[in-house]
Amino acid sequence: MDFVKKQAFFLGCGVAALAGVGLLLWGMSKMSVVQTEMQNVAGLDQQLSGMTRGGEGGGPANPRAIEKEKERIERVKSNYDQVMNLFSQTRKFSPLLEGVLPEAPNTPEGRQSRYEFQTRYIVAMNELLKILNAGQPPTREEIDDTRDYLKKKALQASQFGTGDTAPKAGETPPPSGSPGGRTNAGEGQVVMPPINGPESAAAYWKSLEERAKTDAHILKSISKAKSMFCYAQVGPGGSFELHEIYKVSSTTTQPPASGAIWLAQFWYWVQEDLVRALAAVNNQAANELTARSIDPWVGNLPVKDVLSIRISDYLFENSGKSSGTRVQSDILPSNDPADIFTNRASQPLYTAVNVALVLVVEQTQLPRVLEELCNNRFNVITNVSYEALPLDTDFRDKIYGPDPVIKVRIDLQSYLYNADEFVLLMPEAVRQELRIPPQRIEALHAKAGTPPPSASGDAGAPPSDLPPTGEEPPPPSDRDERPPDDQGTPEDGGLPPPDPDRGRDDRG
């Protein structure tokens, strides 16, 4: 006990030393936790520092980041304006009739303007044939007339001899549209200069000329082919996407609704652009042939036959459907954007549709056609399929010439950018379907100084298009009673003029 008392100081120091060692070991065991916490604090400090300090140059970071974002937005706006300007320069959205879009007023004058649109629509669709310089094979009546002509010439040859080629008094001239009117009156032989092709085509022309001497069907088929650049037809099941608005007749007291007028106008815009592209290919080739003193016609031009142009409904994302209810067929394009590798659908910036063209073209000229379809146009070729057609040695109806031809289907996606003038022509229901922001519509009307559309619009609803109770439908205008001369006829591949009595109600 005395020992403990005497050594109490040293023993206390020893216990304290052992306690210190224990605390040191415990602290070292917790060092990793402290380091982790310190690293977390350091990382947070760096984040806060990045928000309040710049990079290498120092200074505030937020204002600079905001300024960079403003610059990016300005670049996007500038690029958008450039695209819109280019689109406005290449595509002019001129309606076939002013004042009928987006909504014609529900007045006698407004309803009459909708009937007037039908007249303009028929004229415009027939004008597509003129742009292409297109026509149809001979009709039965034309073949019969040519047959009578050949019989008369054969009778003259038997009476006056083959050397007597002078026309007699009262003699009927060669059928209109014959190859330059160049015939040998004694033999009925068609004089046809060779087209630009290999010498192997000589046998083709020799056979054609020999058979045309006595075959009225062949002769008239040649006559029609020599008078046009390609074959095309406007009408049900014809070359173009035709809206049923052309069917308005005397039994219809209700004029076309704004929704139908818009869709007819929209289809026309798409097809007119494609038709002008096909016409440009043939016109350029025709100029090249003319410079070489060769007459251009179906047999020596690239695009020989426009079999069909069909347009899908508006494409929407993730729909797998369409905005319409048309039954799909082999000549119709897909209505699902997922079927196309671009995977693009309509949006507020542009309206997208798929288009399918079925053509007969000269085999070597297909690249030329594809290039022109996309030349300064907002079209993307998505698929091309074709099959070779055998050489036609029958020489009746459609004559494509001696060069190898193919029947080709060209699928493309066409974009109509929703430029200001384009959006202002849309009926309100179409704007909603295409998700055009209401703020943009209000801004456009404010800029144009026009009243904004009503919430309802006519949206193509039949009740709003009917005249008020007891009011007679308006009579046709003078223009309707005297259809324009260039409306076309079924004989030349065009639509007949509209019924001049459409809109009248004679049912009591």
How would you describe the overall organization of this protein?
By secondary structure, the chain is an alpha+beta fold. It has 3 domains: 50 residues; 292 residues, no CATH class; 87 residues, no CATH class. Strands 5-6-8-7 form a 4-stranded antiparallel β-sheet, covered by helices on one side. A hairpin with a 4-residue loop joins strand 2 and strand 3. Helix 5 packs parallel to helix 9. The termini are far apart. The C terminus is likely disordered.
How would you summarize this macromolecular structure in one to three sentences?
This protein has 508 residues and is α+β, with helices and mostly antiparallel strands. The protein is 43% helix and 11% strand.
Strand content: 5-15%
Question: Widest sheet: strand order?
Answer: 5-6-8-7
- Overall geometry: elongated
Secondary-structure content class: alpha+beta
Q: Between the first and last Cα atoms, what is the distance in angstroms?
A: 140 Å
Question: Helices, strands, pairings?
Answer:
Elements: H1 2-6, H2 8-29, H3 31-52, H4 62-90, H5 108-132, E1 134-135, H6 140-160, E2 183-184, E3 189-190, H7 202-212, H8 216-226, E4 230-231, H9 258-291, E5 303-311, E6 350-362, H10 366-374, E7 379-389, E8 405-417, H11 420-424, H12 428-433, H13 438-448, H14 462-465, H15 478-481
Parallel strand pairs: 1-4
Antiparallel strand pairs: 2-3, 5-6, 6-8, 7-8
Helix pairs in contact: 5-9, 6-8, 9-10
